[in-house]
Amino acid sequence: MATERTNTSRLFATSVVEGKLDIDEKYDKAYMMLMNLTRGLSDKEAHDILNKAIDDPKQHEDICLGLMVAILSDPAQANRAFQDLMMVCRDSLKGVCDALINHIVTERFHRLLENTKKQVVWLVRQLVRAGVAQVEGVVWCLLRQMAGGDVSARNIWLAESLCDMLKENRTWLERYSVIIASTVYSFLRILEDHQAPNFAALRQKEVSLVITLLREKFQDCLVIGRDLVRLLQNVAKIPEIEALWRDLLHNPGCLAPNFPGLSQLMSTRTSRRFFVVRLTPEMERMIHYLCSEVKFGMQKRYQDWFQRQFLNTPESQSLRCDLIRFIIGVIHPSNEVLCSDITPRWAVIGWLLSSCTSATATANCKLALFYDWLFFSGENDNIMNIEPGILVMYHSLKPHPMLTTTLLDFLCRIIPHFQPAMAAQVRTGVVTSLRHILEKRVIPNIEPLFDNPRMDPELRRLVRETFPEFCSNNLSAGEEFHAGAPVPLRSLDLMAEAGLDFNSGVSGANAGPDVELNNHHPSVEEDAMFSDEDEENGSVTPISNNVALTNTRVTSACKPLSNKLSKNNTDPIINHLPSVTTADAVTGSLTYTTSTLSAISQRPLTYSNNKSSSSLLNSTTSSNCNNISSNNNHANFKSNSAQLNSIISVCSGSAVSDDVVEVMAEDGVCINGNVMLLNGGRTNKCSALTDAQSQELNGHLNTFETDMKDFLLDLKLEKDQARRCELLQKICDLIFAEDLDEEEAEHLAGALSLLLASDYNTETSLLPQHISQESLCESLEAPIFVLFENLLSLNEDDHRRQSLLMLVSALQQLRPATGYRLLFYITAAAKTRATDSSDQISFQVYRDLWKASGQKDLSGFIVRDLTVCSEDDPRLLCWLLPHLYNFFPKHTTGNAELVHLVLQRLDAAQLHDLVCLVLQGTLTMFDNSSFTNILDKSLSWESVEQFFLWQLARAHEIPVDCCLSVLHRLRFSSHTDAVSTVHPEALANILMMLRRESPSESLLKHLLQRELRTEDPTVATILQYWVQRYEDKMAKLINDIVNNKPPTSPNKRKRNQGGGKLNSHVTLDQLLSHLNHLRRECDQTKFFNLSTMQDSLQAAQNLCTESQKKKYGDLFALITDSPDEKSGKEDSGNSSASTARNKQSNSKRGRKPKLRKKPESESEEESSEEEDVKKPARKRKKNNTVFASDSD
Asked: Nearest to residue 879, comparing CAs of 823, 819, 815?
């Protein structure tokens, strides 16, 4: 019977004890449904019945899962089942990929049957060949299953299968830079395990794959960072790797353009995703459990189990490096864990080091421990990555002195020997690490490590030579960084006092209830904080302030406040407090606090009623309230709530001076009617709700069930930012578990808009003062960003996404600033990832939010959000602009309303930034086709806004042709007060553009179309400028405009009426008025005396009416009479002279050059009309006679 039960699962190896898995039941049900549908049918009939069945979404999912189970359980039918799966699937195989990732490959791969494992690899290979979306996630999960330090046949087969699959599908692989980097990192790591001769064939395949990717895709591999160098060191003796090393050191440019060499790689911190890919999910769960659930002193049996399971062979010793790097780079405990009795990271790392049986593996483990020290930078690296190294040495001084000395010796010797050419950089990195450790109060003093009396004399000399600035005979670290009293060596090590070591529980003779197990750091002052910033989550985990376990007085934590209060000649009560011993501190971090409170409460309460003593009471109560804040521990405060409440009532019974309020605010205490005690960690500003807001909040809360209501109430009371983020994540999880309807979303949005009011504070900018990955991570710590993070993490077709979108949309209606905060999160998160690969997908979330809002116009939606941003945070607006213009070009480029919004808030520095971005080609705010509309609307803007617009126009290289269409509408009057009716900004900038142009017929016609105003010098100015530089060309252009008029003909409807219209809507009156203005204002007599201009004036005069001749008589007076005209005047009277002039005019018309050929763009009607004009040319004599008699 037992044997039968163990074989009931088609996919998983089960036992009598465990039985079938829940997920197995689901897969069996889906498989049986598939079999029932297709049993006894032909292929065609089966296809028809499946196509009908998949119309139901639930049946579609079951059929896809059933086909997947058929592929995995029956190799003989796998090909047919895969073809059916590709035919019937309607979700791009998303359901299959999710099942592989979440239930088969990640969680239960180790429990699959051997044949099933082979079929999983076969199925993934087929999915890769088909280019299925999301299969890259399955491949990444399979890479995790290649365990390091495992040379069993199963692991070797898996490594070879994945290597072959990736080499065969190289084109697919090159599409995913993350998979390229993860592949290189994984196979470089397991190459170290495959050095035996029997693995020669596999090793050659792996080397070929890795070297090809490194040389051809080195830019994608650079994201690995410094751990790429560490892995290359371990396999440097392989010939191909050795050749790569030579290029890396001596010819880095051949690997990637602009790659400077090893220093860039070593300065890049390795992302946690690469540490995760080298541990199987089972290992990861166990290490996480050990560091987050197991109490310190109780970890031995878990370590023994882990040792038996994963570290029981000589080859598995290399796995220890992976574990150490994972613990350092991935496991960053929260405040709550750091202040608890959970096994600390340094204890687990100490166990891995002390139990290692291979000398080579031990040396590699030491390098893994200190690897982040070598090129540490306070700006780009994380204190949590160097904290375990110093704490392992510090806490091993007494129980494991040999471990401390070997680690210290390794740290000294690695500086000159890691890379001799970079020894100075390595020493700088190590020294920076030590300074950072002391500044952050990871340990109180470094002297016990460097001046240990048990240290070997040779090692002591080496330490003093390597770190002279930290040794006691020089400027000590204590003098430079530690203001408090030094801690005696006998009380430094917590494990020694407790009788503990890395592998056993409490065994010392003195172990008992008086041993404090919750202090991971020997001493942390009130300003100590660990920055837990990483590119994936950007969270910050400050360390709670604990009382040092020493026999000395602990009043140093109060010095900052007492120093400030001493200016007022007060008598701080902290100078009279009793000392606190280690035994007292063991009872909890509140011991010192309760002693302080007792001292306050035992004083006569007449101070509160005695006005003359109020200042003393203010100082003492403030001092002690600060002590409460500097030694806060939320759990212990709750257990002593009665005593705290009595003291708070004392504090609130008297007025607090402004100076004290300022001091208390700086030290983490908020005054809001009463003294508020804030729990440990970074806190948000206290913002009490008004009665109306509280009533509104209660109305929202009453609509929710217990769990949601409890989380919202906790969020209302919680002040710690990290804890608030956790609560909001739990709220998101509830939303995912139970989809929200519209009414629930509105109530939840109403509650969150009140509870997250501090996240919408506009007093400080969201954008850091100094923008870097680290500062951007810090700016993303507000709880509101938890909503956005969850929104971006869900796929577009995930049904849970709609509920969250509905919530964010409802929240935006109540808090309009939500929109631009989402834009900031998307942009900042992309910056912290140092890649733009997923930006387009991320900005799609913003587009979905627009759709959820119900607005029709995305452009208006963007402008509305940016309008709010411009009012709240103008600096952020300019930072967001390039990303918006890049990802929404259709809705932003050429948007006049958006441009005006930006220019309204722009300052000179921001204008310079935008101009630089435009010149770099990364920003396009408008183009030639859209600038005309913007210019037209800008005529009513403020002068400074128009000035900024023209600066941007120059950066965009907008040609003057785009400005000519508005030229005739621009007004200007010199020396006028009515500035609102003129457009000097636009005219001045157009003039500056025209002066850089050579005159052309088109430009000249647009200028001549402007109405002549004697007080407007615009046209005359540019005409004079061109005349001075292009005299002959200007004369010819004017002559062409005059002579290229439509020819006179009976067929023309407009024949010399009022002077007629010249070419392209330039009338004769417009031409003559501007020429006359040029003559009068600019004195260009020489220009008018040119023969070409004389011909032009003569032709224009012949076309004028009598009134026009009289109006422009002064201009025509510049015409010089020819000899023929003079003789005509002497021999004939007025009528004959008139006839002669008509004949002369006709003769000139006869000598006129032929009409120029019209461009092809002109209408056929005009072309035919021109032909009609040419045909009756022979009959002009008759017409001329008629005109002559009419004239007589």
From this structure: 823
Determine contact, residues 374/424, Cβ cutoff 8 Å: no
Q: Give the integer Cα–Cα distance in Å for 145 and 1161.
A: 70
The whole-number average pLDDT for the span 1104-1133 is 69
CA 1092, CA 1098: separation in Å to the nearest integer? 10
What pLDDT is recorded for position 118?
94
Q: What angle do CA 930, 931, 936 make, to 5 degrees?
A: 110
Write the pLDDT tens digit of every residue in 765-787. Answer: 888 888 888 888 888 888 888 98
What is the H or E stretch that residue 281 is in?
helix 281-292
Q: Please give the Cα distance from 462 to 1114 (Å, whole number).
A: 102
Place of tokens 């006869």: 1150
Q: Could you tell me if 95 and 132 are in contact, meaning their C-beta atoms sit under 8 angstroms apart?
A: no
What distance lies between CA 961 and its chain's CA centroid?
A: 39
- pLDDT tens across 592-630, in order? 333 333 333 333 333 333 333 333 333 333 333 333 333
Terminal Cα distance for the chain, rounded? 135
Can you give the pLDDT at residue 234?
93
- pLDDT tens column, 1149-1178: 434 444 444 444 444 444 444 444 444 444
Write the burial class of residue 866 (CB in 10 Å: 0-12 exposed, 13-18 middle, 19+ buried).
buried
Task: Name the DSSP letter for residue 683.
Answer: B
576-588 pLDDT tens trace: 333 333 233 323 3
Contact predicate 1055/1048, CB 8 Å? yes
Locate tokens 């007792």: which residue?
598
**Residue 529 predicted with pLDDT over 50:** no
Cβ distance 839 to 885 under 8 Å? no
Cβ-defined contacts of 463-470 (< 8 Å, 24+): 463/408, 463/412, 466/412, 466/415, 466/427, 467/412, 467/431, 467/434, 469/431, 470/434, 470/446
Task: Give which of 636, 656, 482 is closest to 559, Cα–Cα.
Answer: 482
Other residues' Cβ atoms within 10 Å of the Cβ of residue 791:
23
Alpha-carbon distances, residue 574 vs 14, 545, 548, 553 (angstroms): 65, 18, 17, 11
* pLDDT at residue number 560: 33
Residue 742 vs residue 487, higher pLDDT? 742
Kindly indicate the confidence band of residue 906, based on its pLDDT and cuts at 50, 70 and 90.
confident
Distance CA 66, CA 74 (A): 12
Report domain extents, the chain.
1-141, 146-268, 282-498, 555-676, 708-892, 904-997, 1001-1191
Q: How many CA atoms lie within 13 A of 457 on its CB side?
A: 0
Scanning the structure block, which residue is given the tokens 């001596």?
A: 250
Residue 6 near residue 16, CB atoms below 8 Å? yes
- What average pLDDT does range 229-244 have in this prediction? 94
The Cβ of residue 1153 has, within 10 Å, a number of other Cβ atoms equal to 7
Closest CA to 409 of 354, 361, 459, 454: 459
Is the alpha carbon torsion for 1096, 1102, 1105, 1108 positive or negative?
positive
d(CA 430, CA 471): 15
Nearest to 391 by CA among 477, 502, 488: 502
In this predicted model, which residue has the larger pLDDT, 182 or 625? Answer: 182
The burial of 205, by beta-carbon neighbours within 10 Å (0-12 exposed, 13-18 middle, 19 or more buried), is given as middle
Distance, in Å, from the CA atom of 821 to the CA atom of 816, rounded to the nearest integer, reads: 9
- 155 SS3 class: helix
Determine how many CB atoms are found less than 10 A away from the CB of residue 39: 8
pLDDT of residue 904: 87
* CB 952 within 8 Å of CB 918: yes
Q: Summarize pLDDT for 742-759 with one digit per residue, the tens.
A: 888 888 989 998 888 888
- Give per-residue pLDDT as tens, 1116-1126: 888 876 544 54
1001 in Cβ contact with 1041 (< 8 Å): yes
Q: Which two three-digit tokens encode residue 596?
A: 């302080």
